[in-house]
Amino acid sequence: MKTKTNMKLLVPVLCAGMFIYGGCAKQQTVKVDQPIAPSATTAATSATTQPAAKAAAVQPAAAPLPATKISSESIPPQSQQSVAGKAQAGASQADALETIYFDFDSSLLSDTARATLAANLEKLKAKPGAALRIEGNTDERGSDDYNLALSERRAQSAKKYLQALGFPASKLSVVGYGEEKPAVKGEGEEIWAKNRRDEFVIVR
């Protein structure tokens, strides 16, 4: 009888003990769980990326390219011709003889006109054998016959002064155009003043 009674008392104690042990085991399992290790692919990618980033940081900046010198050989022939043409045009403008101007209804040379004629003569001296044609002009006011005669007198005035400076008369010729060849078209004193003039043409 005592044995059966003891067994009956022991069973509940064993059950309670097993229940408590089971709960503790679950808690220990949860606490003991380790964090998930990174996958092999992630580790390989990280290992590859870090050295590459370090190499990029250490790599020095690229050196600047040396300046390229441009020689005349690298310029297209058309551009060289254009530059040469501009140089010739500039030289011809420098050698061109300057125009002289007159007061209204006058063929007298002003001080400015005399200085211009002297400068023109110096340019002519650099051209041995050159002859000179003097072209007289007027503005539009006055009759055609009067303006034609006035333009010839203006050309003659320049011729006589150049002769006085030593230029041979045999190399000088004159022509009067009157109002037929205006330098500037229009009306007004500013425009007319530009048309009362002598122009000089070098004749070879």
From TrEMBL:
Entry's Gene Ontology cellular component terms: cell outer membrane
A Pfam match: OmpA
Keyword field contains Zinc: no
One biological process term in Gene Ontology: cell division
Domain (OmpA-like) ranges: 89-204
Entry-linked PROSITE patterns: OMPA_1 (PS01068), OMPA_2 (PS51123)
Keywords, alphabetical: Cell outer membrane, Lipoprotein, Membrane, Palmitate, Signal
Domain of life assignment: Bacteria
Gene3D superfamilies: OmpA-like domain
Subcellular location: Cell outer membrane
UniProt signal peptide: 1-25
Keyword presence, Lipoprotein: yes
PANTHER family reported for this sequence: LIPOPROTEIN YIAD-RELATED (PTHR30329:SF21), STATOR ELEMENT OF FLAGELLAR MOTOR COMPLEX (PTHR30329)
Family to which this protein belongs: Belongs to the Pal lipoprotein family.
Protein name: Peptidoglycan-associated protein
Organism: Citrifermentans bemidjiense (strain ATCC BAA-1014 / DSM 16622 / JCM 12645 / Bem) (Geobacter bemidjiensis)
Gene label: pal
